[in-house]
Amino acid sequence: MSKQTKNQRVQEPVKVDAKVKTPPTVSLNTNEKISVLDKILKGYTPYIIMMLCSIALYANTFKHQYALDDEIIISKNEYVLRGIAGMPDIFSKDLFESFYTQMNTTAQLAGGRYRPLAVASFAIEQEFIGTRQDANFEANGWDLNHNGKQDIEEDINKDGNYNDKDIKSKGFGMRHINNTLFYGLAVCMLFLFLSKIVFKENPLLAFVISLLFLFHPIHTEVVANVKSRDEIFSFLFMMLSLFLAHQYATQRTLKYLILTCLTFFCALLSKEYGVVLLILIPLSLYLFDENKFKIGNYIGLVLGLLVSFGIYYGIRSTIVIGESNLQDQELMNNPFLLADETQKLATKFFIFLKYFVTLVLPHPLSSDYGYNSIPYKDYSDYRVWIGIVILFGSIGAGLLAFKKRNWTAFAIAFYMLNILLVTNFVFNIGATMGERLVFHSSLGYCMLLGFGLMWIGEKINLKQMSIVLVLPILVLYSMKTFSRNKAWENDITLALTDVENMPESIALNGNASSRNLDMSELPKNKDRAPELIRKAISYGNKAVKLHPGFVNGYLNLGLGYAKLEKYDSAKYVWDIAFKIYPHHPSKPIYYNLLADVYYREGFKFGTDKKWNEGKNLIQKAVELNPTNANYWYDLGGFAYNAQDYVKAKEAWSKAYQLNPKDTNIIKVQGILK
């Protein structure tokens, strides 16, 4: 096709029933280059390239451990740990049901979460890793040498200690490899849809867009954080649904109707985003169907999709734990809690802009953008107005493209429908923003970017320039992806990296506090332990200053003070934590440990006959653990020697109530009649 012909085609008025416009095919100047491109773009070669690129990009995650929510969703999820046997519970319970049970709490997120498909894949992997009947790691570790003991040789994460972190790390290499393969497969499905449906006259553009999507660094959270496999599955099944819908459009067979509805149902089971297919599939058929678009041709398909959604919604509504209003009361799950209505809306416009800017320039990246990493905005901030212009400009451009039946309508719709679900405009998602949340929307951005690069090459009559422009971007993307992957190695590397990027985040300061405590326990850090503990306390203090109701912040502070033998300070902050969260499962653990310390320190005073000093410390022990008969017995002894006979009688009586068969306790009962 000559250049003149192409220009004339662009200027032709668009009819309602005209085929959707696609970019002109890029041709290169030499037969040799055309031949190379033909080989790359035909057959299975593009799919092989994408799988190999996915592996190369994320190969440095294959030895990674768990990080962030991996623990909640996978390594401490009792249903996953049972392997195949846990499948009935996985498909019949809320995503966080196991976590809520372990934490003695009710639903924390409004609307609940039902995403069983990815969790089911974790359970299948567990069959190969080794199954467990419960999540009680402390009581039963992975006895790899079958000697009935927990040995240092079973130090799976090679940090010098054998503890629950080794237990939770077991098998994560397999999970990381699988995540990478699933990601590559999802991008292959993207190329299939783009090259066969959207840009079938221009497979090179489809290939460029797929590579831009594959290499984009903002996807590191989705791939390197195993828990985010739900995003990958969702995207994969969405692409399959779109492709199969067009197969149905051309062949009108029951086979493709059923397959489209089935993959749509799988997209919903992966993550709630699948619901946007109810708009995207009809839109795609309208834009890309070769035949004259007639609604009557798709009534069966639309009804099938609606029935599939109805079945999914019926199942979900009977399963999810979403009745609680705790999300509205907790700043960690409701980052707009302290904002007024004006600030809420202005901040959402700003976040819409920030998502777009981060797609354009993915640096720095962070695992958390919660309160107060993005301070509340108002309309005096010019960036809020830029966000408003881009938002409504995108909607306007999308409607104009739809009217002209141009493919860009699909790109804009894919971006907008998905991004509006995660920017809190529609409902409170329990987070300010997150890189994993823009995973789907990034396709719309990559489609427009890829086309823009190809268009530049066309305009300057140097079509090779399109490739020249793409390659540096892919190189920069790969460098950022590879370096960002390192942060996701484990909880320690992630927290200590990201707290520098987002120093005002409550969650990241809390995580950094906890991770410094972890590091203080490693044998290699023995000489640095006090320094690391002080860092932990510093991060913990900042976290609770940002959020005075942050329970984990107080727990970390207490552990830090206890390690520095500041036991009264530890008790003070733990009392605050457990006042906020009275039924926290760690409450008896922390209080019993502290009680034992007070008891041992108090008992030492008996050697020097300092009975009052010893009595006061043992009194603290019984206040923390009032069910320990020995504490009461020795409190009575110290009180008796201090001539506090009222306290002695009270203590010995309590000891007898708790353990009436102990001979020593029985002997003292008659002393103070």
Describe, in plain words, how this protein is organized in 3D:
This protein has helices at residues 3-11, 31-41, 45-58, 70-75, 78-81, 87-92, 97-102, 116-129, 164-169, 172-198, 203-215, 220-224, 229-251, 254-270, 277-288, 299-319, 326-329, 341-360, 382-403, 408-422, 442-459, 464-487, 491-501, 506-520, 529-546, 551-563, 567-580, 587-604, 611-624, 629-641, 645-658, 663-667. The longest helix is centred in the first third of the chain and has 27 residues, at 172-198. Residues 1-20 and 24-33 have low confidence and may be disordered. The chain contains 32 helices and no strands. It is 64% helix and 0% strand. With 673 residues, it is mostly helical.
Strand portion: under 5%
| General form | elongated
Question: Kindly, what is the distance between the CA atoms of the first and last residues, rounded to a whole number of angstroms?
Answer: 112 Å
How many strand units? 0
Query: Helical content, roughly?
Result: 55-70%
Mean pLDDT: 89
Radius of gyration: 30 Å
Low-confidence stretches: 1-20, 24-33
Number of separate helices: 32
Structural class: mainly alpha
Please summarize the sheet with the most strands.
Answer: none
Quick overview:
64% of the residues lie in helices and 0% in strands. The protein has helices spanning 3-11, 31-41, 45-58, 70-75, 78-81, 87-92, 97-102, 116-129, 164-169, 172-198, 203-215, 220-224, 229-251, 254-270, 277-288, 299-319, 326-329, 341-360, 382-403, 408-422, 442-459, 464-487, 491-501, 506-520, 529-546, 551-563, 567-580, 587-604, 611-624, 629-641, 645-658, 663-667.
